[in-house]
From TrEMBL:
InterPro entries: DNA-bd_HTH_TetR-type_CS (IPR023772), Homeodomain-like_sf (IPR009057), HTH-type_TetR-like_transc_reg (IPR050109), HTH_TetR (IPR001647), Tet_transcr_reg_TetR-rel_C_sf (IPR036271). The keyword ATP-binding does not apply. This is TetR family transcriptional regulator. It comes from Saccharopolyspora thermophila. The lineage of its organism: Bacteria, Bacillati, Actinomycetota, Actinomycetes, Pseudonocardiales. The keyword DNA-binding applies. Residues 10-70 form the HTH tetR-type domain. One of its GO terms (molecular function) is transcription cis-regulatory region binding.
Length: 197
């Protein structure tokens, strides 16, 4: 029996994650049945669960994948850019993933954190990645002289994370996004160091 290359296994795993992302976004965790996951990924349950132990493991891998991609954006461009990416329309060149799909995953994580103690414990280790990336980026900005120096970096980190959660809630409620880009401009400006004449 021929061996499958690591590239093929990685591509298959990516195919499963991408299909699962849209399925969880559309139907939520409970509604993403195995049959729907098969349809969304174009693969059989055997192929899906060859790569992931169960649906819970698949969802955690997906949420972790999104968190890693967000942390990469934060390291390069900051947490406000993650928020701008969230506002980006699918296919316009922005976004961590198509906007509605990424939002769906983020909302499902938030819901499960509120209602599932076991999930909360398992997710706690993974969620620190985004906080650490945000804190490191802000510290770098401070050392570069670009970040206001009258507020502790941990307070600014918490502030930006709170804005992110507020943005996610706003979008989840279907409220208008008309001026949110300008709101993010204000948020970004609020953490910058202002130099005198």
């Amino acid at each position: 029996m021929p061996r499958v290359s690591q590239d093929h296994l990685d591509a298959r795993r990516r195919q499963i994650l991408d299909g699962a992302r849209s399925c969880f976004a559309r139907f939520g965790y409970e509604g993403a049945t195995v049959r729907r996951l098969e349809e969304a990924t174009g693969l059989s349950r055997g192929a899906i669960f060859h790569h992931f132990k169960d649906k819970e493991s698949l969802f955690l891998a997906l949420a972790e994948d999104d968190a890693t991609r967000m942390a990469d954006v934060v390291a390069e461009q900051g947490l406000v850019q993650v928020m701008r990416d969230l506002l980006a329309e699918p296919g316009d060149g922005g976004g961590l993933a198509p906007g509605a799909d990424w939002l769906g995953t983020r909302l499902e994580v938030s819901r499960r954190l509120r209602t599932d103690c076991d999930f909360r414990e398992r997710w706690a280790q993974r969620s620190e990645q985004l906080t650490a990336a945000t804190r490191a980026r802000l510290q770098w900005q401070r050392e570069s002289g670009n970040l206001r120096d009258d507020v502790d970096v941990d307070v600014l980190t918490a502030y930006l994370e709170l804005v992110l959660e507020g943005l996610v809630s706003h979008l989840a409620m279907g409220l208008p996004a008309k001026h949110l880009g300008e709101v993010l401009d204000v948020v970004e400006e609020s953490v910058r160091r202002h130099r005198g004449c």
